[in-house]
Structure formats: C-alpha cells, structure tokens
Amino acid sequence: MSLRHFKIFVAVCEKMNMSKAAEALFISQSAISQAISELENYYGVRLFERLSRKLYLTSAGEKLLGYAMHMIKLNEELESSMKALHEKGSIRIGASVTIGAYVLPKLVARFQNINAETDIKVYEENTEKIGKMILNDKIDIALVEGQISTPDILQIPFMKDELILICGHNHKFAKLKGVEPKELEREKFIIREKGSGTRKTFEDKMTEKKLNWEAAWICNNTDTIKMSVAEGLGVSVISRCSCLNELSRKILYEIPVKGVSFEREFKVIYHKNKYLTGTIKRFIELCMTNNYTI
After folding, report:
1. pLDDT tens across 202-228, in order?
2. Phi and psi of 243, rounded to 5°?
3. By the 8 A CB rule, do 198 and 238 touch?
4. In terms of Cα–Cα distance, which of 186, 209, 196 is closest to 258?
C-alpha cells in the first residue's frame, strides 16, 4: 500500500465523510472510495461500517489509523530532514598528502566561512589510495597531485605546483647557486612511498633525464622528510609549498637543478558517473578560483 492510500484513509477518518474528504484532498469521491476499497481488500478487513448513510470506524480501522498517522508523520519528518540536508549539504573530500597538509585546510576553512552548516569529512592518503576510494564511492571528490590513469575518473587541474630539490644547511649543495643534473646521481634521496604523486613526478622526471638515483629513506609523510633532510641525512625533492617556512628560516635550502624543472598540477578528481550536488559544485568552484594563498 502506498502513502497516498494512508493519507486518503486518514482524511476520511477525520471527516467521517467521503465527499468531504474528497473536497479536502481535491480529488474525486470515486478515487476516495477506490482507495478505501483497495485498503480493505489488501488487509482483508472492514475499515468502516456504513450504517444509515454514515461511516463508523471499525476496531480494525482504529488500529490502522494509528499506524497510518505514524507513517505520515514519519514521512513528513523524512522530507523535512532531507530538504534540510540538501540545503546544508555534506561532502566527503579526499586529499593526497601534500595537498591535505598545505592546501586543503585553507580551502575547507574558506568554504565553511560561507557554508557554515555543511558537514565536511576529509580523508588523507596517497594519490593511488585516493583514486581507489573514488572508484569505490568512499569519497565524493578529491584533490590530488599525482596522475590518475583510470578513464572512470575525471580530472580538472586547479593549481600549478613545483617540486624543488632541498638540502640541509651543512650539505655541500647549500652554498651553491645550482647543480648539474648528474650530481644528483651521487646523492642519497629521502623520498615518498610508492603510490605518492610527489614520488611519481620525481621518478618520471629522473627517467626522462636518464638519471639514476638512490633511495636512502622512504617516508609516507612530508614532515619526516623535511626533518631528515635538515639533519643532513640526505636530499629530497618535495613541493615548494610544503617547505616555505623552513626555507625562510634557513633550516632547508633550495637548490636549482640546471635544465630540470619538476612542475606539475594539482587536480580535482571525481568519478565520471558521480552526481554532483550543489554543495560539491560550490566546493569545486572555490578550488578553481585560484584567488587564495597557500
């Protein structure tokens, strides 16, 4: 039985007259009679006694009335809740590690200044894992620095980024204005794990330039890399935006590599079949404005 049947039944109970119930619901009396008849046939009980052209609710009718009113009220609460959710919105955002640490917090803060009631949940993983979460509908959209290879995920560039070679203040590179690419082959690299967008950009560029390199330490977070480099345990190639503070305080040093540029783009990604709610669209629009600072 449909909610319409129960609404008609309740209306007849309130008016105890099918003609008046029809007027109240703006439908025909025959539609009222048919709905009541369908209810009685479905449940196999008499809901009304019809005596001297008057209606009287049976005991079965009284029991059904309680259930019908409860279901109608639940439906109203459901509608109200869903409309409120639509207006306030919710969004599950994934972020690869660099973006999650240095870009996303400011984006989310700015978004919630305008959309204070929006429920936002953030998940941080490397690019490869974030891509799998998109495919499995664990998140709605994501911001990543790495390349996603599956055609089921759409990618929209929203911000340019550059990886830079860094070393500690005691390293021989610290006082140089630049190094030759071949000099990198003699260094120990402190680098991100497989599946990281940062590592993929670095590996691809080194392969393109036919440069060999040695991984001395593999880390899954940027802070460990920066601390290790600062202590002189090796060099690294990481996002400039992730070490601005350390560069300004001379804890880390940026060394240009002659003829080599580790450029890339940060991207908004989502499944090609994903329904983009108004909330998701507004967040994507914020990412695309590019008028914020890291």
Report:
1. 999 999 999 999 999 999 889 999 999
2. -135, 25
3. yes
4. 209
Degrees, nearest 5: CA angle 122-126-129? 85
3-state secondary structure of 158: strand
Quick: pLDDT tens for 179-197: 999 999 999 999 999 989 8
263 φ/ψ angles, rounded to the nearest 5 degrees: -90, 155
Helical segments of the chain, H only: 3-15, 18-25, 29-43, 59-88, 97-102, 104-114, 127-135, 197-208, 222-230, 244-248, 278-289
Give me 135's structure tokens: 């495919």
Do 7 and 1 form a contact (C-beta atoms < 8 A)?
Answer: no
The pLDDT mean for the chain works out to 91
Residue at 7: amino acid letter: K
- CA dist., res. 281 & res. 82, Å (int): 19
